């Protein structure tokens, strides 16, 4: 949970149902590989790419993004998922470097 949310005294189900995350080190063309690698690590995320209309190139994001749903997760599960997600993103970014 971001520190700002904790300071306001809200965590878990009191905050929201999902969050959108942008991965600036992962290009949009690698979004499917990111989703698959994160799933292999035991975390489910939803790619943001299918929500963009390729007929309007100015609106297509330059990097991968994902929707993370967490309404039914306990705070410990969220923290574990974020650690796993970060590990995969770091690994993919290093592989591209």
Keywords:
Aspartate Aminotransferase, domain 1; single chain; three-stranded antiparallel sheet; globular; 3 helices; alpha+beta; 97 residues; disordered N terminus; 38% helix
Could you give a quick summary of the protein structure above?
This protein has 3 helices and 3 strands. The chain has helices spanning 3-7, 31-40, 75-96; strands at residues 18-27, 46-47, 63-69.
Low-confidence parts lasting 5 or more residues at pLDDT below 50? 1-7
Report the mean per-residue pLDDT as an integer: 82
Query: Would you identify the CATH architecture?
Result: Alpha-Beta Complex
Structure classification = alpha+beta
**Distance N to C terminus:** 29 Å
Number of strands: 3
Please give the oligomerization state of what you see. Answer: single chain
